[in-house]
Amino acid sequence: QVQLVESGGGLVQPGGSLRLSCAASGFTASGYAMTWYRQAPGKERELVATIGSSTKYTDSVKGRFTISRDLAKNTVYLQMNSLKPEDTAVYYCYVRYFFVDYWGKGILVTVSS
Q: Residue 30: what pLDDT?
């Protein structure tokens, strides 16, 4: 059974850093593109970063966020630096596995002083 479990969120001051983790089970994450999405209050869910044969980022996080994965731990990370209040959102891990979409439950990141 495919499962994605996010961790590492919380409250951070502007300019601070957080690292989100997405622990995958039920499949080998290295064989599939893994994506982080986020949804801010009152806004639509948006793609933040994806990792497959290459990495891609939405423009608003380029140079600040880094997506990576640990093959041994079957885990994908999102390192978030220079955080801004507009990065406040629930962050979701996503994978499309055998034509089925799987989402984690999401984790809240709040950037505030």
A: 80
Within a 10 A sphere around the Cβ of 73, how many other Cβ atoms? Answer: 12
Could you read off the pLDDT of 60-103 as tens digits, one per residue? 999 999 999 999 999 999 999 999 999 999 999 999 999 999 99
DSSP summary character for residue 87: G
In angstroms, rounded to a whole number, what is the distance separating the alpha carbons of residues 30 and 88? 28
DSSP 8-class letter at 85: G
Q: Strands, DSSP E only, in 17-106?
A: 18-25, 34-39, 46-51, 55-57, 65-70, 75-80, 89-97, 100-103
- Number of Cβ within 10 Å of residue 20's Cβ equals 25
